[in-house]
């Protein structure tokens, strides 16, 4: 019976242990990469926070619906102390107004009433046919005001904190250059750019499936060509396998994360080729099998 110290010192055990360590390291690295790749945070302001008291608008991108070309953003407002009622950061002492220029919405906050969460819907602009390399953009334009009179209102300085706690998409935030010289930027954020793209982990999975389907098509073509060149007999099991493969390929294609309907870039890179080559090989071998079985030779 082999002793435990001798087992630990064997080359086979050391090789298995090394493989387990590599697999565990790859697993931990992939999880860390996924978390780092998914989340993004940014803070914007156009005012000097050391000179002006600012309110904070926390913008969280809650959902991204590519098919509908829209992103839902949840806004939470934390008021500067001078605007609060009884020092409650969510309760204004006077009537305030929040305008979302991007979604053409206006929200009025009554005095002495807590401000609830505000949900706005931003339109996304982009080309979904470039999947899995498709990117989309949306503008977040906000205005925060307090009422001066019936016809006048004063802008409230704000700091905009943006966060993207969603999976499947990498959401990044940028300071958009405003070319309109008449826009007053002295009271905080006027226009910010949200860019939405597939996460690198999702792109990796999609590319892996693309390469796999393309390889399947090439392998099937090589097998068919070898069968015809060497005049090998085609068995009925091979034809059943090709027919089943034709049924399975659409399911394999749809395992790509968040893939839209047929006709995107990934389909032209592999899926259409794999289906076409498999179907052509199936029909060719079916005819070959029919005549070979009938005549005993070609």
Automatic annotation (TrEMBL):
It comes from the Bacteria. It holds the Pfam family DUF4436. The keyword Transmembrane helix applies. The chain crosses the membrane at residues 12-35, 204-223, 272-292. The keyword Magnesium does not apply. Keywords: Membrane, Transmembrane, Transmembrane helix. This is DUF4436 domain-containing protein.
